[in-house]
Amino acid sequence: MSTQFFSKLSQNYIELLKDDEYYDTTIEVGEDPNVKIFHAHMNILYYRSPYLRRILASEKKNNGLIYIKLPNILPEIFQIILEYIYGGILSLDGHDAPDFLKILATADMLHLQELVNYLQKYLIENKSEWDDLQMKEIEVWEHVLKWGLAQNPTLISGPNTWSDDDFRTMENTLQHCLPLVRFFSLSSVEFSQKVHPYKKLLKHQFYEELLNSYLDPNREPTDNILLPRNITVDKIIDSRIVNLNIVSIISRWIDRTELNYKFSHLRELYFPYQFKLLLRGSRDGFTPKNFHELCDGKSDTITFIKIKDSEEIIGGYNPLKWESSATWGITNGSFIFSFKGKNNYKDATISNVKKLDHALWFNTIAGPYFGDDIIVYASEESIDYNEFYYQKCHYEKEIRDSGYRFSMEDYEVFQIIKRKV
């Protein structure tokens, strides 16, 4: 008969870790200003971590103590690792995605294979919904290829020399990775230079749809395409109406980077501009006078209008300066748009100006007035807007399918400013 008392053993070893009296190893962890000193025991470290075993074997004792420096590990992460080394305990409660990855990376560095295997399995089974990888999609693809080549050292990096068997080998290696790469997020240049040479790794039908998304302006995206990753970018816009996904789509439309606008919401988030808030109706007022005081003389502006009692958002881009004079603004660069909602990008509609000499209307009693299509004005310049209309007139496409009149819940006007990269 054999009985195991691991719980009490684990508890005793954790108590030993916390006891500062009988240690023989001092470990300095981290870099200034985030440095912490840990006390540990050589025999435990030696048998639990192959990485630390090599370090301990090469260090000489000084007054009976060994001193180790681990500058590439965060102290708070090393504390978690030490508790695992001593007591076989791992507590993941209260830790977010970056912490998980830091613990995994540290366990891998210290060659704690049991812990590495557990964390990898845990992440796959419990955290597969995470979607906050802060990396450009082209970099994800390049790392996938690099990993695939590392698994097949006989393959050289250039696909031009690969045989059909080589491609099949690589495809088999990457079979679980390829569906997770968001190829539709890539730019046409990235696709042409970085994906096209490896097209034999992709299923024929998938590759054809990907290719056509760049070439065919009438191609509709299917429903099973992964949306772009949620890249965190600070200080792009302060809006109560739109989010960064809509900002990215609008920025692409301004720069005309898309031939097929139906795929704009699937491309990698694109932020060449900062959106400077000029006016918010709920903050600054809803009169034409407010609008002209804050927006006249400002060029390159975007207007977002939130439709009342609806999720719908409409608006337009004006490359000219807003004015108060009763005159038409002439340009070929303006457009109007609509979104079904803040989180509904697939059905977005863009409509470029058709009658260039009637692209915009400037007037003291008008607010944002795009052609005779989106009309916002008041009977007098100092009273709140009381007339809101949409009709297809001087722009190419219909952007609304519900009614001529509408009510405005709020509106915002932003000036776009080129970001310094």
UniProtKB/TrEMBL annotation:
Give the CC-aspect GO terms.
cytoplasm; ubiquitin ligase complex
Query: Domain of life here?
Result: Eukaryota
Q: Which InterPro entries match?
A: ABTB1 (IPR044515), BTB/POZ_dom (IPR000210), SKP1/BTB/POZ_sf (IPR011333), TLDc_dom (IPR006571)
Q: Which UniProt keywords apply?
A: ANK repeat, Repeat
Q: Which Gene3D superfamilies does this chain map to?
A: Potassium Channel Kv1.1, Chain A (3.30.710.10)
**SUPFAM superfamilies in the record:** POZ domain
Q: Which residues form the TLDc domain?
A: 240-417
Q: Which Pfam family is an annotated match for this chain, by its short name? A: TLD
Per UniProt, residues of the BTB domain are 23-94
- Cited PANTHER family: ANKYRIN REPEAT AND BTB/POZ DOMAIN-CONTAINING PROTEIN 1, ANKYRIN REPEAT AND BTB_POZ DOMAIN-CONTAINING PROTEIN 1
Q: What is this protein called?
A: TLDc domain-containing protein
Protein source organism: Rhizophagus clarus
